[in-house]
Write a structure and sequence with these properties.
CATH architecture of the largest domain: Sandwich
Distance between the termini: 61 Å
CATH topology of the largest domain: Immunoglobulin-like
Number of domains: 2
Helix content: 10-25%
CATH class of the largest domain: Mainly Beta
Bound molecules: copper (II) ion
Number of strands: 13
Length: 233
Amino acid sequence: MKRALITLVSVIVGVGIVVGVGYVAFVASEEPAVIVAKPNGTMQTPKGELPHAVLDLSVYPNSSKDVPAPKTANAIQANWLSGQPFYGPSTSIQVPANSVVTINFTQYDGGGTIYNDFFARVHGSMDGTISWNGKSVKSIPQDQMAHTFTVHQYPESTQPYFFLSVPLPQNPPDAKTNKAGFAEQPQQISVTFITGEAGTYIWNCEFPCGDLYQEFGGPMQTRGWMAGTFEVV
Ligand SMILES: [Cu+2]
């Protein structure tokens, strides 16, 4: 009888935890404000001359006085995510269809080694490269990773295929940082890619920079932090 009661209580507590985590994740998936790539004339591409649009994103190691943390659902989540890295000014991104788009990243965080070098390589850019501090590269060293910007499909999708993955290099461990822990000379990365027809995609970071579940928890699964939406319109 006692054992049955313990089992029942364990099951109830377990269900409670799952529902609770699910609720936090659901509230957390409220979408941040959309940022739209700005038109910037036209550019010559392998697909002819296309309208060009540009977007700037930054990656911060943590929030600070100058760069406040993204919105959170409640105090528990704010506490849970405090001191965690995030993308700004938003993770809800909109770019034009049938265009050439450049995203400029300013990366202020440290990093480490990624287990799978697939994500240390560039995928889906216009010419297979990115610019890293002004140098054209096809990959970055596997042991100098900070984050990735990886855009992909929903699992079931009838819309045009789209896949883009940009490795963002770390600032070296001995890099000078300011009071907020941001690198004083951040890594500058830019990627240029061609979009097709309209579609709705998601993106996330594939470098385990979070906590819980082998560093794939916390910010890694939270929109507004290391994951978001990517609309081609
Ligand atoms: Cu990350």
